[in-house]
């Protein structure tokens, strides 16, 4: 895939980057080099390679998903201006 001048200007516009006429050829070369490298990566055989999140094998640290605090909703809503059945009442903002 090759990037032309029009595509460079469109990418700059979408990224909200001001690009002068002198910078377009340089950016065009840079983008083409990046896309060439990505195409090279597509040629690599990755059959049988497990996806990994780190270069060293490790397991994620997990904690027990349990309630460790709570059970007193009346204390939580005591400073609210308006409540109902231990819930905050807020004004309607969408018609």
UniProtKB/TrEMBL annotation:
Enzyme class: ligase
Pfam families, per database record: GatC
Any single GO BP term: regulation of translational fidelity
InterPro entries referenced in this protein's UniProt entry, alphabetically: Asp/Glu-ADT_sf_sub_c, GatC
Signal sequence region: none
Statement: the UniProt record of this protein carries the keyword Transferase: yes
Keywords assigned by UniProt, alphabetized: ATP-binding, Ligase, Nucleotide-binding, Protein biosynthesis, Transferase
Domain of life: Bacteria
Enzyme Commission code: 6.3.5.-
Record keyword NADP present: no
Catalytic activity: L-aspartyl-tRNA(Asn) + L-glutamine + ATP + H2O = L-asparaginyl-tRNA(Asn) + L-glutamate + ADP + phosphate + 2 H(+); L-glutamyl-tRNA(Gln) + L-glutamine + ATP + H2O = L-glutaminyl-tRNA(Gln) + L-glutamate + ADP + phosphate + H(+)
One GO MF term attached to the UniProt entry: transferase activity
Biological role stated in the UniProt entry: Allows the formation of correctly charged Asn-tRNA(Asn) or Gln-tRNA(Gln) through the transamidation of misacylated Asp-tRNA(Asn) or Glu-tRNA(Gln) in organisms which lack either or both of asparaginyl-tRNA or glutaminyl-tRNA synthetases. The reaction takes place in the presence of glutamine and ATP through an activated phospho-Asp-tRNA(Asn) or phospho-Glu-tRNA(Gln).
Subunit and interaction comment: Heterotrimer of A, B and C subunits.
Family to which the UniProt record says this protein belongs: Belongs to the GatC family.
Protein name per its UniProtKB record: Aspartyl/glutamyl-tRNA(Asn/Gln) amidotransferase subunit C
Organism this protein belongs to: Microvirga vignae
């Amino acid at each position: 895939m090759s990037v032309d001048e029009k595509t460079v200007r469109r990418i700059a516009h979408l990224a909200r980057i001001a690009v002068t006429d002198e910078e377009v050829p340089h950016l065009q070369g840079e983008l083409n080099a990046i896309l060439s490298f990505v195409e090279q990566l597509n040629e690599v055989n990755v059959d049988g390679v497990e996806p990994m999140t780190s270069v060293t094998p490790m397991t994620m640290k997990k904690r027990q998903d349990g309630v460790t605090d709570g059970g007193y909703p009346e204390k939580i809503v005591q400073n609210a201006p308006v409540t109902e059945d231990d819930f905050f009442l807020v004004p309607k903002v969408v018609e």
